[in-house]
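Example 3.2
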Amino acid sequence: MSSQVAKGKAGVEEQLSEQIHRIRITLTSRNVKNLEKVCSELVQRAKDKNLRVKGPVRMPTKILRITTRKTPCGNGSKTWDRYEMRVHKRVIDLHSPSEIVKQVTSINIEPGVEVEVTIAEA
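Structure, written as tokens:
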């Protein structure tokens, strides 16, 4: 009977070392093509490791607009310049141990793509 308890304790220690985490990867970029490429690579690597993957979830695009007068002095016809910058965002959720996430996220990230990794307990 004591051997069963020892086996049970060893099993608990193994479960603690292989604890499953909820990992949220947030990707932001101004260039949609680069963003989608990085997303597809992350999801493909996660599926190769047999992880539970949710995403990429497309968040609403933030459109930053600035409208300014063309003339610096204020004289002349009232013409305006309109500038805008679009920020695209994708969210990917993974359920896996943190060691495997390091392997999944070790990819070449395209220029202009920002990656934020948040780890929470499952």
